[in-house]
Structure formats: structure tokens, C-alpha cells
Amino acid sequence: MKSNLPSLSKVYLVGAGPGAADLITVRGAKLLEKAEIVFHDALVEPEMLSLCPQAELIPVGKRCGKLSSAQQFINKRLVDAAQKYQTVIRLKGGDPMLFGRADEEIQALKDAGIEVQVVPGITAALAGAASIQQSLTLRGISRSVAFVTLAQGAENLTAGQPISNPSADTLVYYMGRKDAAQIAQQLITQGNNGSTHKQDTPVQILEAVSTPRERLWSSTLAELADGNADAWFDSSSPALIMVGEALRTKDTQSESEDSKCSNAKVDDGLQDSQVFANSRRRA
């Protein structure tokens, strides 16, 4: 016997992936097609939002140093929307379960008796490694990877405050642009005391991963510690700082053998090219 009761509402936390619209999962794209309302992060690309033209679009993203929605307010809006709509999407950049405050939203929805489902997405670190075609792990070189963020909500890292750098062969820093030089300085100091990261350890910084605006800064910890990337950063784009020997190209390997730090190499169009030291490229 068929029930006349309306079906229950459900909220989906969907990972938008690193940026490019075609890097969202098939499940995520199908959910966007039938969404009635979509609460989306600030970094979600317009092309991604074009996948749900039928939905009401609500921006609730957070950007460092800019006016943004308080997390408690986002939680309440999700709960309120679930009482009005049957298919609610919370579209989050990258993967919802990595530095995305998903736990707070999930708990608020569960406390309100609302069913919630998480759809994973490609996180920026994996998309970045794919873009420069260098693995974050490497046999005999890197057996561990750590994803790190210095963002602490309303708190900011004060000058001179120690950074808690995990012990891993490859380090990937999310939202570390403002503290990039300090991160490098402390890694070098720790390296002098026996850790794996030294002055000539490779650094790859990617901005706007997987989008047409993607850029790469490729150099060493010494160059980063000297502040040589500070003027390169674009404050309007998300940046990913990757550090470790697994990221060393063959060209930088030969430079390391000469014990010389070259100037930073920059390529503003990575979509169709590979970056090498001394500005050499191949299509």
C-alpha cells in the first residue's frame, strides 16, 4: 500500500572538487541537476553552478579577510531549508571532509532530525599533484604525506608564533599564503636539527588549481623563506603550498647537486604545459 505522506527532506554535502566543473563526481553532478536549493562556497566556479540552473543559489562561502557567513548562521540556514525543500545541497570546495567544517554542519542537521549524506570530492592537493604530474609519494623518498592548514577560524597566526609542522615526507599546506615565508623558515630550522626538509627542498605552489587561472611557482624552501613568493601570490585565488623531495624535478636534481638555489620559476598557464627549471617547457 502506497503512503500518502510526503517524502522526507535530505541534505547533501557535496564536494565540488578543486575547481574545474568537470572534476566533480558523477554522483555530485546528478544531485546538482535535481537540487531545489544550493548553498555554495565562495570558491565554487560559475561553471559548476551552471549544472543546477533550476536551483535557488545561496552564497555562504568564507574568504580570509573578507566579510563572510558565520558558521552557526550557515548551520541554521541548512536546517531551515530542509524544512522547506526536499533536496538541499551544501556545495563545498574540494572534499567536504577536509578543512571544510563538515562536522559542524552534519551535527546541526542530525540534531534537528534531518537526514544528511556526504558526497566526496577531489581535494586540491591531489588535483595539484596531477596538474604538475608529480606524485606526492615516491618510492624510497616519500612514504608519508600530511595535509596542513594554519587557519583557525577567527584566530590568526601572530608573528613569531611557532607553527606545528607535522612529521611527514611531503607536506601540503592549505590556506597558508600569508604565512608562507614563516612556514619555510621554520621547516629549514627544523631541518638543521635533523628533520627531512632542508634549504634546497623543492617547493611547488599552485594557485586556482585545475581552472584556466592556474599558476605555478616552483623553487626551494630557501627562496620561499626569503619571501620571494610574497609578491607573486594573488590574494583573490586559493593557494596550495607543496613541500618535499618527491616534488623534485630532474632539472632541479641537477641544480641541487651543484648546491645552488636558483631564482623562482613561474608559469602562468599550466593547463597545456609542464614547468621545468630555467623556464624550459614542453607541450
Structure description:
This protein is an alpha/beta fold and 283 residues long. Helices cover 25% and strands 21% of the residues. It has a six-stranded mixed sheet. Strands 3-2-4-1-5 form a five-stranded parallel sheet, with helices on both faces. Strand 8 and strand 9 (215-220) form a beta hairpin. The protein is elongated, with a radius of gyration of 21 Å.
Tag the structure with descriptive keywords:
single chain, 283 residues, alpha/beta, six-stranded mixed beta sheet, five-stranded parallel beta sheet, elongated, disordered C terminus
Structural class given helices, strands, pairing?
A: alpha/beta
Shape descriptor:
elongated
Tell me about the biggest sheet?
6 strands, mixed
Helicity range of the residues?
10-25%
Record the strand order, biggest sheet: 6-7-10-8-9-11
- Alpha carbon gap, first and last residue: 63 Å
**Nearest-angstrom radius of gyration?**
21 Å
| Order of helical and strand elements | EHEHEHEHEHEEHEEHEHEEE
Number of DSSP helices? 8
Q: How many individual β-strands?
A: 13
| Share in β-strands | 15-25%
Overall pLDDT confidence: 85
Low-confidence spans: 1-6, 256-261, 271-283
